[in-house]
Please model this.
Amino acid sequence: MVVLDARTGKLKWHHQFDPNDGFDYDLGAAPALYTSGKGSKLLVAGSKDGHLYGIDRATQKVVFKTAVTTIKRSPTPPTKEGTEACPGALGGVEWNGPAVDPSSRAIYVGSVDWCFILTLKPPVVYKAGQFYFGGDQEGSPTRVAGSTGSTATAAMFCGSTTPKPRSLPA
Model:
């Protein structure tokens, strides 16, 4: 995240949420600015890594990091054998940034709880105009029964469009 002076365009400060990120866990939406109940001026940002970050604008220190989706992540980049990533490439906080209710100071953020298994499949061939992930990805949305609240894994999605039933590894 880069914070610029609106009058001069000069850099005020910056914050890197996930150094050496091999999973594309950057910010996918604009942050929100607000004042806490104690009077601190904060910035809140939802990341594709599945966390909501609160940053003090005066000190640039992270004051909270709250998980808003399933967080399960390998310390290694994707492999030929497959690497589970939660959230996956379509998970975490994507396009809708956080919203702040000024009267209650509650923060609302939409998130996607969708894990993927990322698998490198060499040779990787880039084709102009098509998705380019450097390998295959699989993910499973969760289906919830409206009457009982029980859950089940829906169809796995491989590549970008083809659903196929498959069980996740244990």
Notes: Residues 140-170 have pLDDT under 50 and may be disordered. The longest strand covers residues 41-46. The radius of gyration is 19 Å.
